Description:
CATH topology: Mannose-Binding Protein A, Chain A
Number of strands: 10
Bound molecules: 2-acetamido-2-deoxy-1-O-phosphono-alpha-D-glucopyranose, calcium ion
Strand content: 15-25%
Order of helices and strands: HHEEHEHEEEEEEE
Distance between the termini: 55 Å
Structural class: alpha+beta
Strand order of the largest sheet: 1-2-10-3
Number of domains: 1
Largest sheet: 4 strands, antiparallel
Shape: globular
Amino acid sequence: MFLLTIAVLALFGVLKNSNAEILGNQTVRDILLKNKCLCPCGASSGLWKNFLIPYSEANWFEAVSYCSEIGMSILQISSKYDNKDLQDWLNENGEESAASYWIGANDLATSGVYRWGLTNKRASLTQWASGEPNSATIRGEIEHCVEIRADTLEWNDSLCSKQLKFICEKFVE
Ligand code: GN1
Ligand code: CA
């Protein structure tokens, strides 16, 4: 019984640590509370979608969690209309024109195969900057998550652990 208790405690420790690696020492709720953003505040409308750039930077995993906690999703680009809508919205609502933001594309499941969010949907309409994706390794971590530049809408693969602003979306009902 004693050994079993130790084993359970050890397992809990491992799980707790792996979660901590993703979220740092903050829960998604902590992040939401810090931003006083428990609703999709500030979301404004493109033609088909509402977009939102939350106030804080986050790593890619936190960005995915944050968007879904507020009833939205991390940005997905499925058509040229999505791009046009996004570009128009960013022109009006983006911060600096050369800023980059996390979007949902990633190759976490299979290197070199980019999918949206945590789904199986392949990213068919990709718009890589020249020389990207280069799957660069920085301090032992390989780039698996995609950022988009607001001015050119070009993509770069980057370290998922990087703190970056991100774009949430929701289809207009
Ligand atoms: C480089 O130049 P910069 O910082 O925008 C690199 C990207 C990496 C990024 C990592 C042409 O981009 O592939 O993802 O650093 N670009 C080139 O920070 O090598
Ligand atoms: Ca890169």
